[in-house]
Amino acid sequence: MRILGIDPGLRTTGFGVLDAEGPRLCYVASGVIQTGSAAQGNLPARLKLLFDGITELQARYTPDVAAVEIVFVNVNPQATLLLGQARGACLTALVAADLPVAEYTALQMKQAVAGHGKAAKTQVQAMVQRLLGLPAAPRPDAADALGLAITHAHAGPAVARLHAAGAERTTSSMYRRR
């Protein structure tokens, strides 16, 4: 299964691609999409750069699924709204490509990768480097995106089984009521 991890940001969006076969993880690519070429006040142009960048990643790496970070509520409501719009552009590009999307919080990703939800960026970078056997630590945004892909590689199958069991339970209970 090829997984595309996305760490959304309005200025810098991290991405990471890995292949997962059972417990084995294989690094494919990582990097960032930067929107600095658009004027700082031109939000629509920045969102288009993100949409186009995610679309290009999907076409280049043909992932089976995407894992995207869920936005946290910041003390600055304006920053939270802008981040939410950046995340929306990324999600829209993924869904437009008919790619299934899994969502994880930063806390869930840090727990899965570093063992605790309060891990520092440097700890996440070091653990991603170690887990994927990389020669150097990826930059922070790319490390977070790879961490999301790792999280999905480990948690995705279990979550899918839970959803399937819930759907099966719901379906069987519908038939019992009739």
Description:
The protein is of the alpha/beta class and 178 residues long. It has helices spanning 43-61, 77-96, 106-114, 121-132, 140-177; strands at residues 2-7, 12-21, 24-34, 65-69, 101-104. Residues 170-178 have low confidence and may be disordered. It is built from 5 helices and 5 strands. It has a 5-stranded mixed sheet.
**What structural class do the secondary elements suggest?**
alpha/beta
Outline type: globular
**Share of residues in helices:** 55-70%
Largest β-sheet summary = 5 strands, mixed
How is the topology of this model organized?
Elements (H helix, E strand, L loop, with lengths): L1 E6 L4 E10 L2 E11 L8 H19 L3 E5 L7 H20 L4 E4 L1 H9 L6 H12 L7 H38 L1
Parallel strand pairs: 1-4, 4-5
Antiparallel strand pairs: 1-2, 2-3
List keywords for this structure.
alpha/beta; 5 helices; single chain; 178 residues; 5-stranded mixed sheet
Gist of the model:
The protein is α/β, with parallel strands linked by helices and 178 residues long. Helices cover 55% and strands 20% of the residues.
